[in-house]
Amino acid sequence: MNIAIIGAGFTGLSVAYRLLQSGHNVTIFEKDPQPGGLAIGYQEKGWEWTMEAFYHHWFTNDASILGLAEELNFPVIIKRPKTSSLIDGKIYQLDSPRTLLSFAKLSFSERVQMGVVLAFLRFNPFWRPLEKVSATKFLSKTVGKNAYELLWKPLLMSKFGKYTESISLAWFWARIVKRTTNLAYPKGGFLRFAQHLAKVIQKKGGSIQYNVSVENISEKNGKVSLGKQGTFNKVIVTLPSFAFLKLAPSLPSDYQKSLMQLKGLGAVVVIMRLKRPFFTDGTYWLNVCEPGAPILAVVEHTNFMDSKHYNNEHLIYLGHYLPKEHTYFSLSAEDLLKTLDPFLRRLNPEYNKSLIGLKKFSVPFAQPIIPINYSRQVPSMITPFQNVYLANIQQVYPWDRGTNYAVELGEQVAGVIMKK
Ligand SMILES: Cc1cc2nc3c(=O)[nH]c(=O)nc-3n(C[C@H](O)[C@H](O)[C@H](O)COP(=O)(O)OP(=O)(O)OC[C@H]3O[C@@H](n4cnc5c(N)ncnc54)[C@H](O)[C@@H]3O)c2cc1C
Question: Which part of the chain is the Amine oxidase domain (predicted)?
């Protein structure tokens, strides 16, 4: 069968790899010059490794992608970096039961109460009943007033803004269940891993056409046309649902309506290259738990992966999830840094003295909104076009998006096609 895949992110690459293993002809069309999608990386002059445009790591229980790396003999590094939270202007390491139990902003009984609730979520395998309740309602009633107001409410509000109240407890459950204190990272960066997988695909006879943006999808007599890119027996679309609709305007209107109900946030990231570390306490990831803070997270990548791979530079992400209309999307990296500067100076008054470079990345759809009872809304892989399949970031429920689930999804959609 002649199969086309739109998108060379980890879903597209994984489905291509599996379909080639079972003898199909596969062509991937990718609008960017490199594979990797949302996990794409780049490399500055003098760097030995690549780094992601948007901060990325794996949890050590991300079995699908770690299994794929092993299958492909790709080296993976496992480390225990420090994750902290900024609360009332102070940084607290909060990334394990031990650090939670010594969190001085809560009384001993409040810490125990929060620990019991988090343990209940972590060890409860039944997520379905949880999806009926909102995360804010559950947490505000169970973890204790102080823990909710200091930690969870500001975090949820900064991440989800106007959607906060609608976020399902199942989403929160998935975050708690998946978190591991050790984190994993592909040696050389996610771009290197994606390039390696792309090479394997090409060696197996698959074709990857970069810098090709598919503009139209239509179906006639069971054959799928991608306009200039030709006609195929089957097509797999790995783009977010709203982008799929733009390419296929002849899809039935009730289907279009159902996909348009799915909401999401974009992401904006500024990457600072510094001569000296930003954090003095070795923090890799800082959650900003401050209502009204101009940013959600400060991530010092080189407190996870050694700065020697990046010409001894110290690399810091300043990240936020925002609706795509937000002004941050249209600001230059320099202007956005000016906006963030008063906040950053509170964390490190001298950071800008060692600033040697600045880059900004943004994407209009990065974080699906998972409301109450999302299982009723998850789009199917089967679409109204008989031979067009949808496999995207909005289908990995109850899990949150991630390259691990992109690999899983790729394997699932390959399975659906091979059964037909
Ligand atoms: C800020 C941020 C932080 C993240 N952190 C992590 C993390 O720590 N760990 C983790 O595992 N995951 C993380 N993720 C999530 C992860 O990146 C995604 O879940 C995963 O990469 C999705 O892969 P995908 O292939 O499904 O989609 P995508 O990566 O979106 O791939 C879709 C591809 O389609 C291409 N495309 C779009 N339109 C067209 C067109 N018309 N024609 C041809 N090609 C087209 C795009 O260029 C893209 O390459 C993060 C994401 C973001 C944004």
Answer: 10-391
